[in-house]
Amino acid sequence: MFKALYAKRWGVETFYDELKVKLKIENFSGYSPKSILQDFYATLFVSNVQTLIVSELEEEMAKETQTRKYKYKVNKNLSYGFLKNRIIGLFINEEDIKTVISELKELFKKHLIPIRPNRSNKREIGKYRSRIKPVITKNQKDAL
Predict the structure, then answer these.
(1) CA separation (Å) from 61 to 25, 85, 107?
(2) How far is CA 73 from CA 20, 79, 102, 103, in A?
(3) Is 38 among the domain residues?
(4) DSSP letters along 44-56, please?
(5) Does any domain span residue 128?
(6) Which of 2, 49, 79, 85 matches a 20 to 30 Å C-alpha distance to 22?
Protein backbone atom coordinates (compact mmCIF):
# COMPACT_ATOMS: atom_id res chain seq x y z
CA MET A 1 0.00 0.00 0.00
CA PHE A 2 2.78 2.45 0.92
CA LYS A 3 4.72 1.57 -2.20
CA ALA A 4 1.73 2.55 -4.36
CA LEU A 5 1.27 5.79 -2.41
CA TYR A 6 4.94 6.67 -2.75
CA ALA A 7 4.82 5.93 -6.48
CA LYS A 8 2.05 8.52 -6.81
CA ARG A 9 4.25 11.05 -5.00
CA TRP A 10 7.35 10.28 -7.08
CA GLY A 11 6.77 13.18 -9.50
CA VAL A 12 6.73 15.64 -6.62
CA GLU A 13 9.90 14.16 -5.13
CA THR A 14 11.77 14.36 -8.43
CA PHE A 15 10.66 17.97 -8.88
CA TYR A 16 12.09 18.86 -5.47
CA ASP A 17 15.33 17.17 -6.51
CA GLU A 18 15.30 19.17 -9.74
CA LEU A 19 14.84 22.44 -7.86
CA LYS A 20 17.43 21.73 -5.20
CA VAL A 21 20.14 19.95 -7.20
CA LYS A 22 19.84 21.08 -10.80
CA LEU A 23 18.56 24.63 -10.26
CA LYS A 24 20.24 25.16 -6.86
CA ILE A 25 17.25 27.01 -5.46
CA GLU A 26 18.83 27.15 -1.99
CA ASN A 27 21.81 29.22 -3.18
CA PHE A 28 20.85 32.89 -3.03
CA SER A 29 22.67 35.87 -4.48
CA GLY A 30 21.97 38.08 -1.46
CA TYR A 31 20.94 38.10 2.16
CA SER A 32 17.94 40.44 2.17
CA PRO A 33 14.42 38.99 2.03
CA LYS A 34 13.83 40.83 -1.25
CA SER A 35 16.84 39.28 -2.99
CA ILE A 36 15.97 35.82 -1.66
CA LEU A 37 12.42 36.12 -3.01
CA GLN A 38 13.72 37.39 -6.36
CA ASP A 39 16.09 34.44 -6.68
CA PHE A 40 13.36 32.00 -5.65
CA TYR A 41 10.79 33.34 -8.13
CA ALA A 42 13.36 33.64 -10.92
CA THR A 43 14.30 29.98 -10.45
CA LEU A 44 10.65 28.91 -10.54
CA PHE A 45 10.16 31.04 -13.64
CA VAL A 46 13.06 29.36 -15.45
CA SER A 47 11.69 25.96 -14.46
CA ASN A 48 8.25 26.88 -15.83
CA VAL A 49 9.69 28.17 -19.13
CA GLN A 50 11.65 24.93 -19.54
CA THR A 51 8.54 22.87 -18.76
CA LEU A 52 6.46 24.80 -21.30
CA ILE A 53 9.00 24.27 -24.08
CA VAL A 54 9.34 20.57 -23.25
CA SER A 55 5.56 20.10 -23.16
CA GLU A 56 5.33 21.54 -26.68
CA LEU A 57 8.01 19.08 -27.82
CA GLU A 58 6.48 15.93 -26.33
CA GLU A 59 4.09 15.24 -29.23
CA GLU A 60 6.83 15.81 -31.80
CA MET A 61 9.22 13.54 -29.91
CA ALA A 62 6.62 10.77 -29.66
CA LYS A 63 6.14 10.80 -33.44
CA GLU A 64 9.84 10.97 -34.24
CA THR A 65 10.90 8.21 -31.85
CA GLN A 66 8.19 5.65 -32.70
CA THR A 67 10.62 3.46 -34.63
CA ARG A 68 13.17 3.37 -31.82
CA LYS A 69 13.45 0.71 -29.16
CA TYR A 70 12.70 3.02 -26.22
CA LYS A 71 10.66 6.13 -25.62
CA TYR A 72 12.75 9.26 -25.16
CA LYS A 73 12.63 12.37 -23.00
CA VAL A 74 14.49 15.67 -22.86
CA ASN A 75 17.70 15.76 -20.83
CA LYS A 76 16.80 18.25 -18.10
CA ASN A 77 20.37 19.09 -17.09
CA LEU A 78 21.31 20.08 -20.60
CA SER A 79 18.01 21.84 -21.26
CA TYR A 80 18.54 24.12 -18.28
CA GLY A 81 22.06 24.85 -19.48
CA PHE A 82 20.81 25.77 -22.96
CA LEU A 83 18.03 27.89 -21.48
CA LYS A 84 20.37 29.69 -19.07
CA ASN A 85 22.21 31.48 -21.85
CA ARG A 86 19.07 32.31 -23.84
CA ILE A 87 16.46 33.27 -21.23
CA ILE A 88 17.12 37.00 -21.55
CA GLY A 89 16.88 36.79 -25.34
CA LEU A 90 13.33 35.56 -24.97
CA PHE A 91 12.21 38.90 -23.60
CA ILE A 92 14.28 41.51 -25.44
CA ASN A 93 12.46 41.56 -28.80
CA GLU A 94 9.21 39.98 -29.89
CA GLU A 95 10.77 38.92 -33.19
CA ASP A 96 13.56 37.08 -31.42
CA ILE A 97 11.19 35.06 -29.22
CA LYS A 98 10.21 32.67 -32.00
CA THR A 99 13.78 32.17 -33.18
CA VAL A 100 15.08 31.58 -29.65
CA ILE A 101 12.30 29.11 -28.86
CA SER A 102 12.83 27.21 -32.13
CA GLU A 103 16.58 27.14 -31.44
CA LEU A 104 15.93 25.78 -27.94
CA LYS A 105 13.54 23.14 -29.28
CA GLU A 106 16.15 21.94 -31.75
CA LEU A 107 18.80 21.77 -29.03
CA PHE A 108 16.42 19.89 -26.73
CA LYS A 109 15.60 17.39 -29.51
CA LYS A 110 19.28 16.77 -30.21
CA HIS A 111 19.94 15.73 -26.62
CA LEU A 112 17.24 13.19 -25.80
CA ILE A 113 17.75 10.37 -23.33
CA PRO A 114 16.00 6.98 -23.41
CA ILE A 115 13.42 5.94 -20.85
CA ARG A 116 14.28 2.36 -19.96
CA PRO A 117 11.32 0.64 -18.28
CA ASN A 118 11.72 -1.75 -15.35
CA ARG A 119 15.29 -0.72 -14.78
CA SER A 120 16.66 -0.97 -11.30
CA ASN A 121 20.09 -1.20 -9.79
CA LYS A 122 20.82 -3.10 -6.62
CA ARG A 123 21.68 -0.66 -3.86
CA GLU A 124 24.92 -1.33 -2.08
CA ILE A 125 24.37 0.27 1.29
CA GLY A 126 27.59 1.47 2.85
CA LYS A 127 29.62 1.06 -0.33
CA TYR A 128 31.28 4.44 0.04
CA ARG A 129 31.40 4.59 3.82
CA SER A 130 34.61 4.02 5.63
CA ARG A 131 34.21 1.56 8.48
CA ILE A 132 37.45 2.47 10.19
CA LYS A 133 38.13 5.43 12.41
CA PRO A 134 40.25 8.08 10.67
CA VAL A 135 43.85 8.29 11.85
CA ILE A 136 44.86 11.57 13.48
CA THR A 137 48.53 12.29 13.08
CA LYS A 138 50.52 13.83 15.92
CA ASN A 139 50.63 17.33 14.41
CA GLN A 140 46.83 17.53 14.26
CA LYS A 141 44.40 18.07 17.11
CA ASP A 142 40.87 16.88 17.45
CA ALA A 143 38.25 19.53 16.77
CA LEU A 144 36.28 20.73 19.77
Answers:
(1) 29, 24, 13
(2) 21, 11, 17, 17
(3) yes
(4) HHHHHHHHHHHHH
(5) no
(6) 2
Decide if 143 is inside a domain: no
Domain that holds residue 53: 2-115
pLDDT tens, N- to C-terminus, the chain (144 residues):
888 888 888 888 888 888 888 888 888 888 889 999 998 999 999 999 999 999 888 888 777 777 778 878 888 888 988 888 888 878 877 767 888 888 888 898 888 888 778 877 777 777 666 666 656 555 544 444
24: Cβ–Cβ under 8 A, 6 or more apart, which residues?
Answer: 43
Give the span between the Cα atoms of 75 and 114, in whole angstroms: 9
Q: Which stretches within the chain are classed as H helix?
A: 2-17, 33-64, 76-84, 89-92, 94-110
Type of residue found at 135: V
Q: How many domains does the chain have?
A: 1
What whole-number distance in Å separates Cα of residue 106 and Cα of residue 55? 14
